[in-house]
Structures are given as C-alpha cells and as structure tokens.
Amino acid sequence: xxxxxxxxxxDPTGPSDAxxxxxxxxxxxxQARHPAFGFGPPLTRPGMVLWACGTHRAEVDGLxxxxxxxxxxxKRQPTLL
Length: 81
Ligand SMILES: [Zn+2]
Description:
Strand content: 5-15%
Low-confidence stretches: none
Radius of gyration: 24 Å
Shape: rod-shaped
Strand order of the largest sheet: 1-2
Helix content: 10-25%
Order of helices and strands: HEEH
Distance between the termini: 109 Å
Mean pLDDT: 79
Number of helices: 2
Bound molecules: zinc ion
C-alpha cells in the first residue's frame, strides 16, 4: 500500500487586505498614522480614499470637494476715488 500523499505546500496567507489598508491609512495632511483621537470614516471620492485625523478632517474634506477655503480677505481692492 502506497500512500500518495503530498505534503501540502505551506501557503502562508499574506497580509490581508484589511491589514494593508490599516497599514496604508494615515492622515493626508499631517501623515499621522495613529492620531490621538483616531480616524473617522474615510473621506472618499470616486477613485480615491483619503484618511484624515480629527484635526485635518475639514481640511482634507475641502481638498476632496474642491471647495475653496474661505479666505479672510478676498481681493480687497483699494478704493480709488
Ligand atoms: Zn492630520
């Protein structure tokens, strides 16, 4: 009787997608990987996912939406009378 029983190739499962995602996430603005207050849900736009810490969340969200940040002084023209 012959046992034809191949040793199963050791197949270490690579890093899971979730783990890679976890490793890849960092604040888009300050590159913090472990912000004090953690990350909220990712800021997503079609084709991209950005993470932001609590401090930079609004800033990164503004980058994604393309909404210009309100400038304190918007084109103040000197009054020439
Ligand atoms: Zn940040």
